[in-house]
Amino acid sequence: MAAIVALLAPALSGCGGAPPQQPAAAPPAVTVAKPVRQTIIDQDEYVGRFVAVDMVEVRARVSGYLEQVHFQDGQIVKEGDLLFSIDKRPFETSLDQAKANLAQARANLAFTEADLARAAQLVRDKTITEQTFDQRTQAKRVAEASVAAQEAAVRQAALDLQFTELRAPVTGRIGDRRVTTGNLVTGGTGGNTTLLATIVSIDPIRFEFTFDEAAFLRYERLNGDGKDPASRGVSTGVKLKLLDEKDFAHKGRMDFVDNVIDRATGTIRGRAQFANPSGMFIPGMFARVQVPGSPPYDALLVPDVAIGTEQVRKFVYVVDADNIVRQKYVTLGQLANDLRVIKDGLDPDDRVIVNGLMHARPGAKVAPREEPVASQTRAPQAKTD
Hints:
With 385 residues, the protein is α+β, with helices and mostly antiparallel strands. It has helices at 2-15, 89-124, 130-162, 213-224, and strands spanning 29-33, 36-40, 42-52, 55-59, 64-69, 76-77, 82-86, 165-167, 172-174, 184-185, 195-200, 205-212, 237-242, 250-257, 267-274, 286-292, 297-303, 308-310, 313-319, 325-336, 339-344, 351-355, 367-370, 382-383.
């Protein structure tokens, strides 16, 4: 037994020795890039609705039975196109009667003029009295007034006959007919007139939105610097996108800013105008608009994925000359395409970690691989998230 223990002793002593040392772990690989310097214009975004430049309710000016409809619901109509016809026979009769009354009044005027001419000779010959002459003069004046009244009645009857044909007052898209053929249409200028259809203009179209008082003051100072203060920035170029679009591809211009700030909301109404040849934009449709919110300025931009969050503070990881990770707190600007504007806290020569953030720790060494930020196909315009 003692011999066995003696033989096992060296092996046991070897098992209880210090373990062999492991090789040191290699620094984690990260991708770094220097900030991109570009000229930026901040863009403010607002949600608004399209409104038509012209919107007309088609109502009859005369009452009568609707005889014919000359359009298809929803079609584009041009100014002057015939839309509705009202039975014109009663109005033709009224016009004929007015013309007859006018002819009678003119005949009576001719008689009174001749009678007055004879009276003028008779009164000089002392054949009739001055009173009789004055009576015939008065009769002529009454006849002249009657002719004027009947001429007005003829013009009114002709207008009523013309109003039996309702034509499009503007070019645009017409809605559906509200009254079908054979119904009695109530016309006139009162509140009980019959609504027949509505027309909205399509091209161009306006876009209305509201912005707060602080934004209004910023725009006023921006557009008033060296420009005509009376313009109030109404010629500023803006861009728009629909709810299902990714880019602000539609260009327009501001054409109106309201003259009062709403006391209840503290906002003011602005309006831009856009070309709409295809009719894609329709009144009432929602969209987002971009309005320039700053003069052009040079800015540093990094990929948005490089931004980290520590409670309320934002930071980036940079790699120094010794390949040690350092944390820098930064002040963010707006998003420009896929890049984030850094307003403060970053230097142009900093190497920012843009890939491998999960493996980077402040004070730790890394193996950086530098890649340039992918160049953009167009100059980015900063926008609100």
